[in-house]
C-alpha cells in the first residue's frame, strides 16, 4: 500500500518556482532519499509533506488520508499529520535537559508520566546516551546532540520520519557512524524514512529509493543502484558517482556505429531499442575504462591520483579527457602511453534533450 | 651580586610580561576604560555614598544638632526609623512601595506590549507591519512626560483630579474616566510602560527574528499546540531578552521624575524620585540615601540578569533556515488585531503630536474655537505687548530658540560621538577578552551610569565640577551626557563585536595591519550600521534629556529642554508646546535621515 | 585593583587643582559706601559676562535693559529656587552667577551663614528702606499668593473666613501647590503655627463657628487649620496651571491659593476669577484672619562673583523705578521703595501687610520640624 502520495505538487515563492508539478509515491517502510544540489526544491518538498510549508497547488496524502489539497481546501497542520521530523541543525531546545527534550513530544500526546519515563529510557538506551539524561544541549558534543535529536523525533513512534540533511553538521567519522545507526534504526523502527541530502554517497548507501531533483523538477525516482547504472538523463548521470561519469560528445547512426573522441565503436544496446541517426553524448563510468596492455586504444596519461584502495588515472585520447578508476595503487609516469578498453556498459544520451537513449556495451573498432 | 642579578632578571621578566600584555590593543583599551570609567562612575558613586554619612551645613546641621561636616548615621536613622509624624513611612517606605509597584508594572506592561507586538511583527502575517514597526519607537523618541501630559489632557474631567476642567474624552465624547484610570499608579505605570515598550520590542524582536525557527518547528512536529509552543519554547528562548528589558525599564521607571509628578501629585501619589527631588535641597543626605537605594535595586536586577544569562541553559543562536520560516496565519483575527494595534499606536505616538500642535496655537486654554487660534506663538512678533506673555516673538523668529536648538544639537552630536566611539572601543575590548574578569568589570562599569538616576547624576557631577576649574559649560554637559549614555553605546558595541567572528580580524593581524587600520578599514565598515545605531540612541536620548542637564546648563536658555521647562514653569504653555513639538520633529528628522542614509536605526542600537 | 584605585585617586587629585577664589566681602563693604557714579566706574572696569540667576522670568528683561544701559555682556538664567541654591553651592569661576534674585528667606538665611551670598544695600536705599527690608537681606519686592475663586455657578466660594476652607463641603474644592515642591508654600503653612497667627486663627474660628476652638491633639489652632486645610486641598502642578484650572467655566465652586500676578497671564480666563481680598475691600469686610500670604524676593551678591561691582550696580538699578519696570506693569509685585507705587487696581503694600501672612525666616528656621507635621498631612 502506498504510504505517501504527492500529486502535481507545486510551490512558488513569488515568481520563483521552488517545486514544479511534482508527482511522487513513497511506499511504506521504505527509506527514500530526496537528492539534489542546493536550491533544487528537496527541502521544500519535505517541508510541504510535513506541513511546515503550504504548497501552492497539488495534493498530498499520507496513509490514504488527504492532508493537503489546494482544490478541496484541505490543509492539515503539521501536528495532525503523524510524522516525525529530524532537523538539519538538531534544533534541540537549549533550556531543556536531554530528558525533557525527548519527553516533550510524549507530553504533548498526554502520555502518563510512567509511560513517558519508560519510553525515554528505552530511547536513551537505543541511542546509547543514557548518561546524558540530565545534561543541557550546550553541554553535548555534536554527535551526542544528533542522537538526542533522533531520540526526540523517534519518541512518539512516528510512522513516517523525515530527515533534513541530519548529518551535514557532523564530521566525516561521525557521519559514517551515524549512517550505520540510521540504517539500523530504519530496520528497528519499521517506519518510513524520507531523507533529504545533497550528498550522493549518503543517498546511495542508505536508501531503498532515491529521488533526484533539479530546478524544482523530479529527474528520476529509482532504487540507487539502478539509478547509478541507468541514469535517466545527463543530470542524474552527472550527479551520481565520484569521480563523476565521463561525457564525450559523438555521433550515432542507425547501425549502432558510434563516432566519438576520434574513436570508432560498435554500440551493442542491452535492451531491444531502435537506434536512430543522431548527435549523442556518451557517458562512461570511470570504473568501466580498463587500462591494460591488451587495450584496443592508445592514450596518453595526463595525471595519476592514487588514493590507496583505488587510483584515478586521467587519460588524454585525441584531445578528449577521460577519467579511469583502477583498483589498487598504480602509478603511471606523466605523458607515458597506455592502452585501454571499455568494459561493462556505457550510456548514450541525446545531445539536445540530454535524455538517456540506451545502455549498452562499447566495442572499439 | 647574584641576588641583584636575579632581582634584575625578575624585573625584566615582569616587564616583558607587562609589555606583551600591553601589546594587545584590547588590553590597552580595557585598562584605559577601567581607569576612566572608575573615575567617571565609581568616584561619583563613592562621593555620593559619602554624602549619605555627612551632615550638611544649614538645615541638616540644625536638625541633627551636629556640626556641619561631621560623619554620622543621622540620615539613615531619620529616613528609615523615624516614627514621629509617620516621617519614615511618608518619606521613604510608602514612596518606596509605590515605586516598586509602578516600576514593576511598567516593566510588565513594556514587556507584554512590546513583546506581543514584536511577536506579531516577526512571527505572523500581520497587516500594516511597516507602519507598526515605523511608529513603535516614537514613544521612546518623545520625552516620557509628553505622553503623561497628553494622558492627563485627554482623560481629565471635572469628577477627578483638580476637578476643574474636561479633557477631550469628556468634552467631546462625554466619557468620564474614573480617577484611578487618569491619576496614580495605573496611568504612571502605563505611560512609563508604553514609553519603554520599544526596548522590549527591539530586544525581544531581535531574538525572535534571529531565533532558529527550527526550534518551534520541531515542537510543532511533536504535536505541541500553538499556545504550548509559545509557553514552553518561544517564551523561554526570549527570557534573557525579557530580563534585559526588565532591567532597563525597571531602572528607568524607578528614576523617572516628571511622569509621577504630573500624574501622581493631584492624587498625592508619591514615589522615591519625587521624594528624592524634594529632599535634595534641604536634606541632601537623605536624598542621596534614596539614590543609593535605587542604585542598589538596579544592581540587584543586573546581577540577577547576569546569573540567568550565564547559566548552562545559555544558548548560541544558530541561525537555521529561518528564511523559510512560515509565519503564523492570523486568519480572520488579522484585520481586527492590526487595526487595534494601529489605533493604539496612533493614540500613543501620533495624537500627542497633534495635541501639542493644537495647544501651541490656542490662546486661552480649553477653547478650541478658530477665533482663539493664532500662529503668533510660532511666528508672531511683538507678543509681549499684546499678550503680556513670554518672549516677544514666536519661537521660530526667536534667536534664543535657534541658539538653543544649535546648542542642543551640538551637544547631542558630541555626546553621541563620544559615547558611540567609546562604545565601539569597549565593545571591541570586551568581546576580544570575553570571559576574562577584566572584561566583565569594564562591561559592568560601562553599564553602571544607566542605573544612576539622571537628576542625582547631574547633581554629583555639578559637585565634582566645582573642584575642577576647567570643567565647565559645554565640556561638562558633553562629559555628563557621554557617560550617562555610554551604556546604550557599549551594549550595541559589545553585541556588534560578538557577532563578528574573530577570524576576520586575525586575517588582518597575520598580514601585519596595525590595530587602528584594522578597526578603521575592516571592523567598523563591516558593522557600520550597528555602530551607527550605537550613536543614534545616545543622540536621541540627549536631545530630549532634561533632568540630567538641568543643574549643569550655564543658563536656562542654553538647551531646548531647559528652555521648554522654563516656559512651562512660567505658564507660557503655548511656547512650551511649540518647543516640545520642535524637539520631537528634530529628533524624528535626524532619526529618519540617518536611517535613510546609513540604514542605522534605533532598533539596532539597543543591541537586538 | 588597589593600584588602580591609587592611580585613579592621583588622577582625580591632579584634575582638582584647587583654585583659590577671591572673596568679594571687602568689595561689597566698599560698595555700600559708594555713590552711583563710583559704582558705574568700578563696574565698567570689570571684565567677563555678567551672570544673573533668578526664579522669576522678568529678571531677564530687567537684565537686558540694564545691560543695554551700560553696554555690559550679560547672561540671565531662570531657575527654580532649589536649583539656584544647588548651583550656588557647587559653582565657581566665570560661569557662576554674579548676582541672584531669590525667594525663601529661610533657605537664604542658611545660604548667608554658609557664605554663599552676601547682602548689599545701595547707599541710595540706606535711608529710604525700613530696617527689615535691608537686613539680613535686601528685599527687592514682595509677592503675594491670594485666595482667588471661580465666580461662576451658584456655589461661589466667596470666603470671609479661612476656616470655611476646612468645612466638609470644601473637600477637593481648594487647589494649592504642593508645599514640598516650592518652599515658600511650606513656609506659609509653618507660619500659620506661629503663636501670633495661631491666636488669630483661634479667634477667627470663634467668629466662624460661634464657639471656642476644640484643639484636640493639635498644639494650637494653627496646626488644626493647616491639617484640616490640607485635608481639603488638591495639589496643582504650578501656580500658572492652578490659575488656569480655577478659571475654567467648568470649575465652579473652586478656590485656589496662588500668585496674584498670574492673573496677567493670557491663558487665564481672568473674568471668571475673583480675588477674595478685592471682594472684601470692595464690600467693606475682611477675610478672617488672612487673605493669603506674602513673601519677599531678595537680591544678593554671589560671594564668588567675578563682577561684584556690576552685581551691586545692577541691584542698585533694580531698586529704582526703571529697574522695577518689568514688574511694574502688572499687579502682584510690590517694591519696598516707597517711590515706586503699586499698579492700578492693586492694593498697596501696607494693606497687604495687614491682611496676609508674612514670611518670617527666623520663626521658620527655628521651627523646621513643623514641616514633618505638614508633610504628614500632604499624604492621602
CATH homologous superfamily of the largest domain in chain C?
Answer: Periplasmic binding protein-like II
Low-confidence stretches of chain A: none
Overall strand count of chain C: 12
Distance between the termini of chain C: 49 Å
Which CATH class of the largest domain in chain C? Alpha Beta
Number of contiguous helices of chain C: 17
How widely separated are the two ends of chain A? 50 Å
Number of domains of chain C: 2
Describe the structure.
- Chain A is an alpha+beta fold.
- Chain A has helices at residues 42-50, 98-108, 113-126, 142-154, 172-189, 200-206, 224-229, 234-239, and strands at residues 2-13, 16-27, 31-35, 57-62, 65-69, 74-75, 83-86, 160-164, 192-197, 209-214, 217-222, 246-252, 257-260, 263-269, 278-284, 289-291, 297-306, 310-317, 320-327, 337-342, 346-350, 356-364.
- Chain A contains eight helices and 22 strands.
- In chain A, helix 2 crosses helix 3 (113-126), helix 2 packs parallel to helix 4 and helix 3 packs across helix 4 (142-154).
- Chain B is built from 29 helices and no strands.
- Among the domains of chain B are: 29-59 and 408-556, MetI-like fold (Orthogonal Bundle); 99-272 and 324-359, MetI-like (MetI-like fold, Orthogonal Bundle).
- The termini of chain B are far apart.
- In chain B, helix 2 (25-53) packs across helix 21, helix 15 (272-282) runs antiparallel to helix 16 and helix 26 runs antiparallel to helix 28.
- By secondary structure, chain C is an alpha/beta fold.
- Chain C has two domains: 22-141 and 296-347, 3-Layer(aba) Sandwich (D-Maltodextrin-Binding Protein, domain 2); 143-293 and 358-377, D-Maltodextrin-Binding Protein, domain 2 (3-Layer(aba) Sandwich).
- Helix content of chain C is 43%, strand content 16%.
- Chain C is globular.
- Chains B and C meet through helix 2, helix 3, helix 5, helix 15 and helix 22 of B and helix 1, strand 2, helix 5, helix 6 and strand 7 of C.
Amino acid at each position: 500500500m502506498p504510504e505517501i502520495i504527492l500529486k502535481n505538487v507545486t510551490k512558488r515563492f513569488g515568481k520563483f518556482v521552488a517545486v514544479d508539478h511534482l508527482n511522487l509515491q513513497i511506499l511504506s517502510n521504505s527509506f527514500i532519499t530526496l537528492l539534489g544540489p542546493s536550491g533544487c526544491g528537496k527541502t521544500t518538498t519535505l517541508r510541504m509533506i510535513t506541513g511546515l510549508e503550504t504548497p501552492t497547488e497539488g495534493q498530498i496524502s499520507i496513509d490514504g488520508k488527504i492532508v493537503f489539497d489546494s482544490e478541496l481546501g484541505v490543509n492539515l497542520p503539521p501536528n495532525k499529520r503523524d510524522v516525525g521530523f529530524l532537523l538539519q541543525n538538531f534544533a534541540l531546545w537549549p533550556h531543556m535537559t536531554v530528558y525533557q527534550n525527548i519527553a516533550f513530544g510524549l507530553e504533548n500526546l498526554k502520555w502518563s508520566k510512567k509511560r513517558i519515563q519508560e519510553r525515554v529510557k528505552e530511547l536513551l538506551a537505543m541511542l546509547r546516551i543514557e548518561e546524558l539524561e540530565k545534561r543541557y544541549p550546550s553541554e553535548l558534543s555534536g554527535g551526542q546532540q544528533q542522537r538526542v535529536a533522533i531520540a526526540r523525533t523517534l519518541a512518539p513512534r512516528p510512522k513516517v520520519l523525515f530527515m533534513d540533511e541530519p548529518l551535514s553538521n557532523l564530521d566525516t567519522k561521525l557521519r559514517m557512524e551515524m549512517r550505520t545507526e540510521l540504517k539500523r534504526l530504519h530496520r528497528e523502527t519499521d517506519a518510513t524514512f524520507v531523507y533529504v541530502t545533497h550528498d550522493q554517497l549518503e543517498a546511495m548507501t542508505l536508501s531503498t529509493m532515491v529521488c533526484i531533483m533539479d530546478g524544482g523538477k523530479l529527474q528520476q525516482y529509482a532504487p540507487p543502484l539502478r539509478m547509478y547504472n541507468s541514469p535517466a538523463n545527463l543530470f542524474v548521470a552527472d550527479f551520481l558517482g565520484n569521480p563523476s561519469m565521463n561525457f564525450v560528445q559523438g555521433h550515432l547512426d542507425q547501425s549502432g556505429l558510434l563516432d566519438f573522441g576520434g574513436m570508432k565503436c560498435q554500440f551493442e544496446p542491452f535492451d531491444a531499442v531502435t537506434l536512430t541517426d543522431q548527435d549523442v553524448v556518451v557517458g562512461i563510468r570511470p570504473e568501466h575504462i580498463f587500462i591494460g596492455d591488451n587495450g584496443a586504444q592508445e592514450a596518453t596519461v595526463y595525471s595519476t591520483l592514487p588514493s590507496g584502495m583505488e587510483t584515478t588515472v586521467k587519460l588524454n585520447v585525441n584531445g578528449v579527457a577521460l577519467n579511469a578508476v583502477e583498483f589498487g595503487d598504480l602509478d603511471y609516469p606523466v605523458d607515458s602511453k597506455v592502452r585501454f578498453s571499455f568494459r561493462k556498459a556505457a550510456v548514450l544520451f541525446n545531445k539536445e534533450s540530454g535524455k538517456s537513449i540506451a545502455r549498452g556495451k562499447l566495442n572499439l573498432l | 651580586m647574584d641576588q641583584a642579578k636575579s632581582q634584575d632578571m625578575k624585573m625584566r621578566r615582569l616587564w616583558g610580561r607587562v609589555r606583551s600584555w600591553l601589546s594587545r590593543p584590547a588590553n590597552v583599551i580595557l585598562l584605559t576604560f577601567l581607569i576612566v570609567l572608575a573615575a567617571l562612575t565609581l568616584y561619583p558613586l563613592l562621593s555620593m555614598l559619602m554624602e549619605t554619612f555627612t551632615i550638611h551645613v544649614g538645615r541638616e546641621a540644625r536638625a541633627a544638632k551636629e556640626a556641619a561636616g561631621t560623619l554620622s548615621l543621622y540620615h539613615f536613622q531619620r529616613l528609615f526609623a523615624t516614627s514621629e509624624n509617620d516621617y519614615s513611612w511618608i518619606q521613604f517606605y510608602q514612596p518606596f512601595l509605590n515605586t516598586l509597584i509602578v516600576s514593576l508594572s511598567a516593566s510588565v506592561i513594556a514587556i507584554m506590549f512590546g513583546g506581543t507586538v514584536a511577536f506579531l511583527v516577526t512571527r505572523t502575517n500581520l497587516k500594516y507591519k511597516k507602519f507598526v514597526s515605523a511608529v513603535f519607537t516614537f514613544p521612546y523618541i518623545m520625552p516620557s512626560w509628553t505622553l503623561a501630559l497628553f494622558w492627563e489632557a485627554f482623560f481629565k474631567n471635572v469628577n477627578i483630579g483638580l476637578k476643574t476642567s474636561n479633557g477631550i474624552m469628556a468634552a467631546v465624547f462625554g466619557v468620564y474616566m474614573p480617577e484611578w484610570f487618569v491619576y496614580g499608579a495605573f496611568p504612571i505605570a502605563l505611560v512609563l510602560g508604553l514609553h519603554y515598550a520599544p526596548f522590549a520590542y527591539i530586544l525581544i524582536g531581535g531574538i525572535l527574528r534571529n531565533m532558529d525557527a527550527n526550534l518551534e518547528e520541531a515542537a510543532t512536529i511533536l504535536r505541541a499546540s500553538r499556545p504550548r509552543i509559545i509557553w514552553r519554547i518561544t517564551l523561554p528562548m526570549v527570557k534573557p531578552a525579557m530580563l534585559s528589558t526588565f532591567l532597563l525599564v525597571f531602572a528607568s521607571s524607578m528614576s523617572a521624575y516628571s511622569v509621577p509628578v504630573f500624574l501622581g501629585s493631584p492624587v498625592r501619589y508619591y514615589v522615591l524620585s519625587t521624594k528624592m527631588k524634594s529632599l535634595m535641597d534641604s536634606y541632601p543626605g537623605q536624598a542621596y540615601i534614596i539614590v543609593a537605594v535605587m542604585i542598589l535595586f538596579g544592581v540587584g536586577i543586573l546581577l540577577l540578569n547576569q546569573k540567568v544569562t550565564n547559566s548552562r541553559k545559555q544558548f548560541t543562536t544558530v541561525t537555521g533556515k529561518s528564511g523559510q520560516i512560515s509565519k503564523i496565519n492570523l486568519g480572520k483575527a488579522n484585520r481586527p488585531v492590526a487595526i487595534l494595534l494601529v489605533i493604539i499606536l496612533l493614540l500613543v505616538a501620533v495624537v500627542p503630536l497633534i495635541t501639542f500642535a493644537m495647544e501651541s496655537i490656542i490662546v486661552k486654554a480649553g477653547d478650541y474655537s478658530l477665533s482663539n487660534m493664532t500662529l503668533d506663538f510660532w511666528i508672531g512678533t511683538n507678543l509681549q505687548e499684546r499678550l503680556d506673555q513670554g518672549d516677544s516673538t514666536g519661537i521660530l523668529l526667536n534667536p534664543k530658540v535657534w541658539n538653543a536648538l544649535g546648542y542642543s544639537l551640538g551637544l547631542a552630536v558630541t555626546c553621541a560621538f563620544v559615547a558611540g566611539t567609546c562604545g565601539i572601543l569597549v565593545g571591541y575590548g570586551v568581546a576580544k577578552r570575553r570571559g576574562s574578569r577584566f572584561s566583565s568589570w569594564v562591561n559592568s562599569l560601562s553599564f553602571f551610569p544607566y542605573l544612576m538616576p539622571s537628576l542625582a547624576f547631574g547633581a554629583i557631577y555639578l559637585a565634582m565640577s566645582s573642584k575642577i576649574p576647567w570643567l565647565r559649560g559645554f565640556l561638562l554637559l558633553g562629559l555628563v551626557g557621554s557617560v550617562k549614555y555610554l551604556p546604550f553605546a557599549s551594549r550595541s558595541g559589545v553585541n556588534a563585536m560578538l557577532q563578528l567572528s574573530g577570524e576576520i580580524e586575525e586575517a588582518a593581524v597575520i598580514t601585519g595591519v596595525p590595530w587602528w587600520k584594522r578597526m578603521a578599514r575592516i571592523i567598523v565598515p563591516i558593522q557600520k550600521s550597528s555602530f551607527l545605531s550605537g550613536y543614534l540612541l545616545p543622540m536621541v536620548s540627549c536631545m530630549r534629556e532634561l533632568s540630567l542637564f538641568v543643574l549643569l546648563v550655564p543658563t536656562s536658555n542654553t538647551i531646548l529642554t531647559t528652555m521648554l521647562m522654563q516656559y512651562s514653569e512660567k505658564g507660557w504653555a503655548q511656547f512650551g508646546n511649540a518647543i516640545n513639538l520642535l524637539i520631537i520633529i528634530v529628533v524624528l528628522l535626524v532619526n529618519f535621515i540617518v536611517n535613510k542614509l546609513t540604514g542605522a536605526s534605533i532598533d539596532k542600537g539597543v543591541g537586538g | 585593583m588597589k593600584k588602580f584605585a591609587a592611580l585613579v585617586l592621583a588622577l582625580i587629585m591632579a584634575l582638582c587643582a584647587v583654585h583659590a577664589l577671591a572673596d568679594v566681602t571687602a568689595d561689597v563693604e566698599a560698595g555700600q559706601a559708594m555713590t552711583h557714579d563710583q559704582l558705574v566706574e568700578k563696574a565698567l572696569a570689570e571684565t567677563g559676562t555678567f551672570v544673573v540667576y533668578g526664579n522669576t522670568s522678568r529678571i531677564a528683561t530687567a537684565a537686558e535693559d540694564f545691560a543695554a544701559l551700560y553696554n555690559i555682556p550679560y547672561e540671565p538664567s531662570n531657575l527654580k529656587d532649589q536649583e539656584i541654591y544647588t548651583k550656588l553651592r557647587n559653582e565657581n569661576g566665570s560661569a557662576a552667577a554674579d548676582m541672584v534674585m531669590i525667594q525663601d528667606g529661610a533657605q537664604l538665611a542658611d545660604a548667608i551663614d554658609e557664605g554663599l551670598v552676601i547682602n548689599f544695600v545701595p547707599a541710595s536705599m540706606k535711608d529710604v528702606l525700613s530696617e527689615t527690608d535691608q537686613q539680613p537681606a535686601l528685599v527687592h519686592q514682595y509677592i503675594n499668593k491670594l485666595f482667588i475663586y471661580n465666580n461662576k455657578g451658584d456655589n461661589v466660594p466667596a470666603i470671609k473666613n479661612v476656616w470655611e476652607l476646612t468645612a466638609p463641603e470644601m473637600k477637593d474644592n481648594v487647589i494649592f501647590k504642593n508645599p514640598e515642591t516650592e518652599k515658600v508654600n511650606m513656609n506659609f503653612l509653618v507660619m500659620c503655627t506661629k503663636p501670633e497667627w495661631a491666636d488669630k486663627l483661634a479667634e477667627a474660628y470663634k467668629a466662624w463657628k460661634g464657639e471656642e476652638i476644640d484643639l484636640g491633639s493639635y498644639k494650637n489652632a494653627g496646626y488644626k487649620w493647616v491639617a484640616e486645610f490640607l485635608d481639603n486641598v488638591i495639589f496643582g502642578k504650578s501656580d500658572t496651571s492652578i490659575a488656569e484650572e480655577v478659571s475654567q467655566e467648568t470649575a465652579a465652586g473652586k478656590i485656589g491659593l496662588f500668585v496674584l500676578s498670574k492673573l496677567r497671564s493670557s491663558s487665564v480666563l481672568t473674568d471668571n476669577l475673583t480675588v477674595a481680598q478685592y471682594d472684601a475691600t470692595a464690600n467693606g469686610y475682611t477675610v478672617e484672619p488672612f487673605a493669603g500670604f506674602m513673601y519677599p524676593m531678595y537680591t544678593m551678591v554671589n560671594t564668588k562673583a567675578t563682577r561684584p561691582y556690576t552685581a551691586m550696580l545692577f541691584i542698585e538699578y533694580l531698586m529704582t523705578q526703571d529697574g522695577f519696570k518689568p514688574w511694574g506693569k502688572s499687579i502682584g509685585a510690590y517694591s519696598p521703595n516707597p517711590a515706586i507705587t503699586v499698579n492700578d487696581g492693586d492694593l498697596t503694600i501696607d494693606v497687604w501687610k495687614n491682611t496676609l501672612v508674612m514670611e518670617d525666616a527666623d520663626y521658620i528656621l527655628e521651627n523646621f520640624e513643623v514641616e514633618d507635621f505638614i508633610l504628614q498631612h500632604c499624604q492621602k
